[in-house]
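Hi V.,

You were right to ask for the full record rather than a summary. Here it is.
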Amino acid sequence: MTRARAHAVVIGGNMAGCLSAEILSRSFERVTLIEKGDFYDESCDRKSVPQEHHVHLLLLRGKQILEALFPGFIAELEREGAVEADLGHDVKWYQYGRWKHRYKTGVTAHYCSRRLLDNLIRRRIQRNARIHVRSQTVVGDLLQVNGWICGVHLDVDGKGEALSTDFVIDASGRGSHALQWLQRAGYSHPEAKEQVVTKLGYASRIYRRLPKYVDLWKILLVLPLPPQQRSMGVISLIEGDRWLVTTGGWFGDYPKPDPDQFLAHLAKLPVPDIHRIVSEAEPLSEVFGFGMSGSLRHRFDLFSRWPEGFLVLGDALCSLNPLYSQGMSLCAMEVDCLASNLDSWLAERIGTHHLQCRILSIVTPAWEMAKQEDLRFPETVGERSSSVRWNHWYGKHVGRLSALHRFTLRTQVEVSNLVAPGKRLYHPEIFGQVLLASLLDSTRRS
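Predicted structure:
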């Protein structure tokens, strides 16, 4: 037995939606991608990407998946002006009260505006003959027959329309209505939503790049020492020989989208470097602001009943604290998991809920990491078990050690770039150096 594969629907024209549509087009005869905004406009603000004006980072794991999915994509990105940076050598990085020594790690990320990244992906989608885009179209509900999601109800210019399908993916982002749709269809769980409230916010502005810094660094990053400090800042290279500067923080410690407040907030950072440099630079845009309550995850794995033919991906499934820069790469990893399991689902060897649980498991390690980091702030609600307190202590000392120790720095960026498991930070060389540094600190204090 095999499942029907005539038509699939993807809700959301963002990165998760576009990548999902590309994967489905290799197994389904036709894929309809539904976007509530204008899918084809490459210059206006996108409704589906409310934080597009701020610094985004395409981590190494995300790059690897995108290149495998769209061969030649990275070269195309570079031709359009994206800049590759070694995250140990090309980043001037302040963390846990220290500037890091800059070593080449071989772990690179590409820096550009989010709009450039999305535009190139959307152009690839438009070249795929099996994908049909429904732009400026809203999905109002799911259609169900005998436990199977068989279609979606559309709202097009105030007129209703039913669209039948064999498979539906909701990749509509953090504002997804999946929970409400599932409840109306008779599926629910009292603990379906898990949230870590940290009252995040940030503001960003584009500047002309100052030539005198061209050979000094590509990225300048300043992170706080929690819980006393709560603000971060970054100067990131983007296409057009410009800088995108973002500053923000936890629990309301971020500026409003106002030029004076923006500069004043940069002046509050633990070191003055970003404020001093930005004060010299020419602004090329207004100040853009963004705020959110914190990380959000939907525990669809807890559902005892789940409709066949419906899957949730991307920020609609799990939206992490964006200050950790893992969102886009996690979306790519979820879609990679979909690609690896789609044939088994089509052959009815696994059910849709099983597939949904596998995809959720992809984001769980990053979720736990982000949650534990946010628990450094006393206002964050959550249990601080002995393991959490240990991880806080150990993580702080790893961060300080990586400022001076080449192997630790490389391992730190490999883990944060999702190409190495977190347990790699317990390598004997790192563990021993952390204990030795702690012992020496205790001896000096005594």
